[in-house]
Amino acid sequence: MIEQYILEITAELSKANNIVIVPHKGPDGDAMGSTLALMHFLKDKGHNANVIAPNEYPNFLKWLPGNDQVIIYDESKKLADDIIEKAEIIFTLDFNDLSRCGDMQQALEASEATFIMIDHHQEPANYADYTYSDTSMSSTCEMVYHFIERLRAKNKITPEIASCLYTGIMTDTGSFRFSSTTPNTHRVVADLIEKGAENSKIHQDVFDTNSESRLQLLGVALQNLKVNRQFRTAYITISQEELDAHNFKKGDTEGFVNYGLSLDGIVFAAIFIENKQEGIIKISFRSKGDFSVNTFARAHFNGGGHNNAAGGRSEMSMNDTIVEFNKLLPEYKEQLQA
Ligand code: 5GP
Ligand code: MN
Protein backbone atom coordinates (compact mmCIF):
# COMPACT_ATOMS: atom_id res chain seq x y z
CA MET A 1 0.00 0.00 0.00
CA ILE A 2 2.87 2.37 0.78
CA GLU A 3 4.57 1.65 -2.59
CA GLN A 4 2.10 3.77 -4.54
CA TYR A 5 2.65 6.72 -2.21
CA ILE A 6 6.36 6.55 -1.65
CA LEU A 7 7.24 8.96 -4.45
CA GLU A 8 4.69 11.48 -3.19
CA ILE A 9 5.93 11.09 0.37
CA THR A 10 9.52 11.54 -0.81
CA ALA A 11 8.46 14.78 -2.52
CA GLU A 12 6.61 15.97 0.62
CA LEU A 13 9.68 15.20 2.74
CA SER A 14 11.98 17.09 0.41
CA LYS A 15 9.84 20.23 0.87
CA ALA A 16 9.31 20.04 4.62
CA ASN A 17 11.49 21.26 7.45
CA ASN A 18 9.30 21.06 10.54
CA ILE A 19 8.09 17.55 11.28
CA VAL A 20 6.22 16.27 14.33
CA ILE A 21 6.03 12.60 15.28
CA VAL A 22 3.31 11.39 17.65
CA PRO A 23 2.86 8.09 19.52
CA HIS A 24 -0.39 7.06 21.23
CA LYS A 25 -1.34 7.99 24.78
CA GLY A 26 0.24 5.68 27.32
CA PRO A 27 3.14 5.04 24.96
CA ASP A 28 4.65 1.55 25.05
CA GLY A 29 7.95 0.19 23.70
CA ASP A 30 6.68 0.07 20.12
CA ALA A 31 5.24 3.59 20.25
CA MET A 32 8.40 5.15 21.73
CA GLY A 33 10.79 2.97 19.73
CA SER A 34 9.13 3.78 16.41
CA THR A 35 8.74 7.53 17.03
CA LEU A 36 12.31 7.96 18.29
CA ALA A 37 13.73 5.86 15.44
CA LEU A 38 11.91 8.03 12.91
CA MET A 39 13.03 11.19 14.74
CA HIS A 40 16.69 10.15 14.49
CA PHE A 41 16.27 9.21 10.83
CA LEU A 42 14.64 12.54 9.91
CA LYS A 43 17.08 14.64 11.97
CA ASP A 44 20.00 12.88 10.31
CA LYS A 45 18.41 13.87 6.97
CA GLY A 46 18.45 17.50 8.15
CA HIS A 47 14.82 18.00 9.20
CA ASN A 48 13.69 19.70 12.39
CA ALA A 49 11.89 16.67 13.82
CA ASN A 50 10.22 16.53 17.25
CA VAL A 51 8.57 13.66 19.09
CA ILE A 52 5.57 14.84 21.10
CA ALA A 53 4.07 12.14 23.35
CA PRO A 54 0.56 12.72 24.75
CA ASN A 55 1.69 11.74 28.26
CA GLU A 56 4.48 10.11 30.24
CA TYR A 57 5.85 6.68 29.51
CA PRO A 58 7.49 4.03 31.71
CA ASN A 59 10.99 4.31 33.16
CA PHE A 60 12.11 1.11 31.46
CA LEU A 61 12.01 3.05 28.17
CA LYS A 62 13.94 6.08 29.42
CA TRP A 63 17.31 4.74 28.27
CA LEU A 64 16.17 4.93 24.60
CA PRO A 65 18.46 7.16 22.54
CA GLY A 66 16.75 10.53 22.10
CA ASN A 67 14.63 10.14 25.26
CA ASP A 68 15.87 13.50 26.54
CA GLN A 69 14.40 15.26 23.49
CA VAL A 70 10.85 13.92 23.86
CA ILE A 71 8.23 16.59 24.60
CA ILE A 72 5.39 15.45 26.87
CA TYR A 73 2.15 17.15 25.84
CA ASP A 74 0.53 16.92 29.29
CA GLU A 75 3.48 18.75 30.83
CA SER A 76 4.45 21.25 28.11
CA LYS A 77 1.18 22.03 26.38
CA LYS A 78 2.08 25.53 25.20
CA LEU A 79 5.46 24.57 23.74
CA ALA A 80 3.90 21.50 22.11
CA ASP A 81 0.97 23.46 20.63
CA ASP A 82 3.44 25.93 19.07
CA ILE A 83 5.47 23.13 17.52
CA ILE A 84 2.35 21.38 16.23
CA GLU A 85 1.11 24.60 14.70
CA LYS A 86 4.35 25.03 12.75
CA ALA A 87 4.48 21.41 11.58
CA GLU A 88 4.41 20.77 7.86
CA ILE A 89 4.26 17.00 8.23
CA ILE A 90 2.85 15.06 11.17
CA PHE A 91 3.62 11.37 11.46
CA THR A 92 1.25 9.44 13.72
CA LEU A 93 2.74 6.14 14.77
CA ASP A 94 1.36 3.00 16.39
CA PHE A 95 -2.27 4.06 16.61
CA ASN A 96 -5.26 4.13 14.30
CA ASP A 97 -7.48 6.98 15.49
CA LEU A 98 -6.71 10.51 16.73
CA SER A 99 -8.89 9.85 19.78
CA ARG A 100 -6.01 7.68 21.04
CA CYS A 101 -3.92 10.85 21.61
CA GLY A 102 -5.89 12.05 24.61
CA ASP A 103 -5.83 15.83 25.06
CA MET A 104 -3.57 16.26 22.03
CA GLN A 105 -6.39 15.33 19.68
CA GLN A 106 -7.71 18.90 19.35
CA ALA A 107 -4.34 20.43 18.42
CA LEU A 108 -3.78 17.69 15.85
CA GLU A 109 -7.23 18.14 14.33
CA ALA A 110 -6.61 21.88 14.00
CA SER A 111 -3.33 21.33 12.14
CA GLU A 112 -3.05 21.79 8.39
CA ALA A 113 0.03 19.60 8.14
CA THR A 114 0.24 16.57 5.89
CA PHE A 115 -0.59 13.54 8.03
CA ILE A 116 1.21 10.25 7.54
CA MET A 117 0.00 7.26 9.55
CA ILE A 118 2.22 4.24 10.10
CA ASP A 119 0.36 1.62 12.13
CA HIS A 120 -0.48 -2.05 12.53
CA HIS A 121 -3.80 -1.87 14.42
CA GLN A 122 -7.10 -3.09 13.02
CA GLU A 123 -9.60 -0.76 11.34
CA PRO A 124 -7.57 2.42 10.77
CA ALA A 125 -9.57 5.66 10.82
CA ASN A 126 -9.49 7.90 7.79
CA TYR A 127 -7.72 11.06 9.03
CA ALA A 128 -4.32 10.76 7.34
CA ASP A 129 -3.28 11.98 3.89
CA TYR A 130 -1.11 8.88 3.61
CA THR A 131 -2.10 5.74 5.48
CA TYR A 132 0.48 3.00 5.77
CA SER A 133 -1.52 0.39 7.67
CA ASP A 134 -0.63 -3.30 7.79
CA THR A 135 -2.28 -5.44 10.44
CA SER A 136 -0.08 -8.40 9.54
CA MET A 137 2.97 -6.57 10.92
CA SER A 138 4.39 -7.50 14.31
CA SER A 139 4.92 -3.90 15.27
CA THR A 140 5.05 -0.33 14.05
CA CYS A 141 8.83 -0.53 14.47
CA GLU A 142 8.94 -3.29 11.86
CA MET A 143 6.92 -0.99 9.58
CA VAL A 144 9.25 1.97 10.14
CA TYR A 145 12.09 -0.32 9.08
CA HIS A 146 10.20 -1.11 5.84
CA PHE A 147 9.35 2.57 5.40
CA ILE A 148 13.06 3.45 5.55
CA GLU A 149 13.77 0.53 3.24
CA ARG A 150 11.27 1.87 0.69
CA LEU A 151 12.88 5.30 0.89
CA ARG A 152 16.02 3.38 -0.18
CA ALA A 153 17.78 4.52 2.97
CA LYS A 154 18.55 1.28 4.84
CA ASN A 155 22.19 2.32 4.82
CA LYS A 156 21.14 5.33 6.96
CA ILE A 157 20.09 3.11 9.88
CA THR A 158 22.48 4.06 12.68
CA PRO A 159 23.02 2.09 15.93
CA GLU A 160 20.59 4.56 17.63
CA ILE A 161 17.86 3.92 15.07
CA ALA A 162 18.53 0.16 15.18
CA SER A 163 18.26 0.15 19.00
CA CYS A 164 14.95 2.03 18.96
CA LEU A 165 13.45 -0.26 16.30
CA TYR A 166 14.73 -3.42 17.99
CA THR A 167 13.10 -2.34 21.27
CA GLY A 168 9.64 -1.93 19.76
CA ILE A 169 9.75 -5.19 17.84
CA MET A 170 10.94 -7.02 20.96
CA THR A 171 8.26 -5.56 23.26
CA ASP A 172 5.33 -5.86 20.81
CA THR A 173 6.15 -9.49 20.00
CA GLY A 174 6.59 -10.50 23.66
CA SER A 175 10.26 -11.14 22.89
CA PHE A 176 9.54 -12.76 19.53
CA ARG A 177 6.99 -15.31 20.72
CA PHE A 178 3.57 -13.97 19.67
CA SER A 179 2.06 -15.33 16.47
CA SER A 180 2.64 -11.93 14.82
CA THR A 181 6.35 -12.83 14.70
CA THR A 182 7.18 -13.90 11.13
CA PRO A 183 10.32 -15.06 9.34
CA ASN A 184 10.52 -11.51 8.02
CA THR A 185 10.40 -10.10 11.56
CA HIS A 186 13.47 -12.19 12.35
CA ARG A 187 15.18 -11.01 9.15
CA VAL A 188 14.55 -7.40 10.13
CA VAL A 189 15.78 -8.03 13.65
CA ALA A 190 18.92 -9.77 12.34
CA ASP A 191 19.68 -6.73 10.22
CA LEU A 192 19.09 -4.39 13.18
CA ILE A 193 21.57 -6.37 15.29
CA GLU A 194 24.08 -6.12 12.45
CA LYS A 195 23.42 -2.38 12.33
CA GLY A 196 24.31 -1.97 16.00
CA ALA A 197 21.32 -2.89 18.18
CA GLU A 198 22.77 -4.57 21.27
CA ASN A 199 20.06 -7.19 21.63
CA SER A 200 21.04 -8.71 24.96
CA LYS A 201 21.63 -5.33 26.60
CA ILE A 202 18.30 -4.00 25.30
CA HIS A 203 16.49 -6.99 26.77
CA GLN A 204 18.14 -6.35 30.15
CA ASP A 205 17.43 -2.61 30.05
CA VAL A 206 13.73 -3.24 29.41
CA PHE A 207 13.00 -6.38 31.43
CA ASP A 208 15.61 -6.62 34.18
CA THR A 209 15.13 -3.25 35.83
CA ASN A 210 12.31 -4.18 38.25
CA SER A 211 11.87 -2.56 41.63
CA GLU A 212 10.97 -4.72 44.67
CA SER A 213 7.63 -2.95 44.91
CA ARG A 214 6.79 -3.83 41.32
CA LEU A 215 7.52 -7.51 41.91
CA GLN A 216 5.40 -7.37 45.07
CA LEU A 217 2.56 -5.79 43.07
CA LEU A 218 2.86 -8.72 40.66
CA GLY A 219 2.43 -10.98 43.71
CA VAL A 220 -0.81 -9.17 44.58
CA ALA A 221 -2.02 -9.42 40.97
CA LEU A 222 -1.37 -13.16 40.91
CA GLN A 223 -3.20 -13.59 44.25
CA ASN A 224 -6.17 -11.81 42.68
CA LEU A 225 -6.22 -14.08 39.61
CA LYS A 226 -9.61 -15.67 38.89
CA VAL A 227 -9.96 -18.62 36.55
CA ASN A 228 -13.17 -19.55 34.75
CA ARG A 229 -12.50 -22.95 33.22
CA GLN A 230 -15.95 -23.15 31.60
CA PHE A 231 -15.09 -20.28 29.28
CA ARG A 232 -11.31 -20.88 29.30
CA THR A 233 -10.89 -17.37 30.70
CA ALA A 234 -8.62 -15.92 33.40
CA TYR A 235 -8.60 -12.38 34.75
CA ILE A 236 -6.78 -10.23 37.26
CA THR A 237 -7.97 -7.15 39.12
CA ILE A 238 -5.82 -4.48 40.76
CA SER A 239 -7.47 -1.76 42.82
CA GLN A 240 -6.18 1.78 43.28
CA GLU A 241 -5.51 0.93 46.92
CA GLU A 242 -3.30 -1.98 45.89
CA LEU A 243 -1.43 0.24 43.43
CA ASP A 244 -0.92 2.91 46.10
CA ALA A 245 0.36 0.37 48.60
CA HIS A 246 3.07 -0.67 46.14
CA ASN A 247 4.40 2.70 45.07
CA PHE A 248 2.87 2.25 41.61
CA LYS A 249 4.64 3.91 38.71
CA LYS A 250 3.65 4.02 35.06
CA GLY A 251 4.49 0.76 33.33
CA ASP A 252 4.63 -1.31 36.53
CA THR A 253 1.70 -3.50 35.43
CA GLU A 254 3.05 -4.03 31.90
CA GLY A 255 2.93 -7.72 31.00
CA PHE A 256 0.89 -8.83 34.04
CA VAL A 257 -2.04 -9.83 31.79
CA ASN A 258 0.12 -12.48 30.12
CA TYR A 259 0.28 -14.55 33.32
CA GLY A 260 -3.41 -15.38 32.95
CA LEU A 261 -2.83 -16.50 29.39
CA SER A 262 0.11 -18.67 30.47
CA LEU A 263 -2.30 -21.04 32.27
CA ASP A 264 -2.79 -24.37 30.57
CA GLY A 265 -6.06 -24.45 28.63
CA ILE A 266 -6.80 -20.71 28.97
CA VAL A 267 -7.45 -18.83 25.71
CA PHE A 268 -8.73 -15.46 26.98
CA ALA A 269 -7.09 -13.29 29.62
CA ALA A 270 -7.87 -9.86 30.98
CA ILE A 271 -6.53 -7.45 33.57
CA PHE A 272 -8.65 -4.70 35.14
CA ILE A 273 -6.71 -1.84 36.69
CA GLU A 274 -8.45 0.88 38.65
CA ASN A 275 -7.50 4.50 37.89
CA LYS A 276 -9.27 6.70 40.43
CA GLN A 277 -7.80 9.90 38.98
CA GLU A 278 -9.34 9.27 35.55
CA GLY A 279 -12.40 7.61 37.09
CA ILE A 280 -12.00 4.52 34.93
CA ILE A 281 -11.00 0.90 34.96
CA LYS A 282 -8.30 0.44 32.31
CA ILE A 283 -8.48 -3.01 30.76
CA SER A 284 -6.04 -5.12 28.77
CA PHE A 285 -7.20 -8.19 26.88
CA ARG A 286 -5.13 -11.02 25.43
CA SER A 287 -6.10 -14.20 23.61
CA LYS A 288 -4.64 -17.30 22.01
CA GLY A 289 -6.01 -18.54 18.69
CA ASP A 290 -9.15 -17.30 16.95
CA PHE A 291 -10.98 -15.38 19.68
CA SER A 292 -10.66 -11.72 18.64
CA VAL A 293 -10.11 -9.45 21.63
CA ASN A 294 -10.15 -6.49 19.22
CA THR A 295 -13.79 -7.27 18.41
CA PHE A 296 -14.60 -7.89 22.08
CA ALA A 297 -12.95 -4.65 23.28
CA ARG A 298 -14.64 -2.62 20.57
CA ALA A 299 -18.07 -4.09 21.18
CA HIS A 300 -18.13 -3.79 24.98
CA PHE A 301 -15.32 -1.68 26.41
CA ASN A 302 -14.83 1.30 24.09
CA GLY A 303 -11.48 0.00 22.92
CA GLY A 304 -9.71 -1.99 20.25
CA GLY A 305 -6.30 -3.20 19.15
CA HIS A 306 -5.31 -6.46 17.52
CA ASN A 307 -6.92 -9.90 17.31
CA ASN A 308 -4.81 -11.28 20.16
CA ALA A 309 -3.99 -8.09 22.11
CA ALA A 310 -6.34 -5.22 22.75
CA GLY A 311 -7.32 -2.68 25.36
CA GLY A 312 -10.33 -0.77 26.54
CA ARG A 313 -11.91 0.98 29.49
CA SER A 314 -14.94 0.96 31.74
CA GLU A 315 -16.50 3.87 33.57
CA MET A 316 -18.31 1.58 36.04
CA SER A 317 -16.91 0.54 39.40
CA MET A 318 -14.52 -2.39 39.52
CA ASN A 319 -17.25 -4.67 40.89
CA ASP A 320 -19.79 -3.72 38.24
CA THR A 321 -17.18 -4.03 35.51
CA ILE A 322 -16.32 -7.56 36.60
CA VAL A 323 -20.00 -8.53 36.83
CA GLU A 324 -20.52 -7.17 33.31
CA PHE A 325 -17.43 -8.97 32.00
CA ASN A 326 -18.59 -12.32 33.43
CA LYS A 327 -22.06 -11.77 31.97
CA LEU A 328 -20.58 -11.31 28.48
CA LEU A 329 -18.62 -14.56 28.40
CA PRO A 330 -21.58 -16.86 27.59
CA GLU A 331 -22.29 -14.74 24.49
CA TYR A 332 -18.94 -15.96 23.15
CA LYS A 333 -19.33 -19.57 24.23
CA GLU A 334 -18.81 -20.91 20.70
CA GLN A 335 -15.31 -19.47 20.63
CA LEU A 336 -14.45 -19.79 24.30
CA GLN A 337 -15.68 -23.26 25.17
CA ALA A 338 -13.39 -26.15 24.26
P1 5GP B 1 -2.26 -2.90 26.14
O1 5GP B 1 -3.21 -3.88 26.69
O2 5GP B 1 -0.86 -3.44 26.12
O3 5GP B 1 -2.39 -1.53 26.70
O4 5GP B 1 -2.67 -2.73 24.61
C1 5GP B 1 -2.80 -3.82 23.74
C2 5GP B 1 -3.04 -3.31 22.34
O5 5GP B 1 -4.32 -2.69 22.28
C3 5GP B 1 -2.05 -2.25 21.92
O6 5GP B 1 -1.78 -2.43 20.55
C4 5GP B 1 -2.76 -0.96 22.18
O7 5GP B 1 -2.33 0.06 21.31
C5 5GP B 1 -4.22 -1.32 21.96
N1 5GP B 1 -5.09 -0.58 22.90
C6 5GP B 1 -4.95 -0.48 24.24
N2 5GP B 1 -5.92 0.26 24.79
C7 5GP B 1 -6.73 0.67 23.78
C8 5GP B 1 -7.91 1.47 23.70
O8 5GP B 1 -8.43 1.97 24.70
N3 5GP B 1 -8.43 1.67 22.45
C9 5GP B 1 -7.88 1.12 21.33
N4 5GP B 1 -8.47 1.36 20.16
N5 5GP B 1 -6.77 0.36 21.37
C10 5GP B 1 -6.19 0.13 22.56
MN1 MN C 1 2.43 -1.54 18.37
TrEMBL record:
Pfam families: DHH, DHHA1. One of its GO terms (molecular function) is nucleic acid binding. Coiled coil: none annotated. InterPro entries: DDH_dom (IPR001667), DHH_sf (IPR038763), DHHA1_dom (IPR003156), Oligoribo/pAp-PDE_c-di-AMP_PDE (IPR051319). Residues 18-169 form the DDH domain. It comes from the Bacteria. Residues 246-315 form the DHHA1 domain. Gene3D superfamilies: 3.10.310.30, inorganic pyrophosphatase (n-terminal core). This is Bifunctional oligoribonuclease/PAP phosphatase NrnA. It comes from Zunongwangia profunda. The lineage of its organism: Bacteria, Pseudomonadati, Bacteroidota, Flavobacteriia, Flavobacteriales.
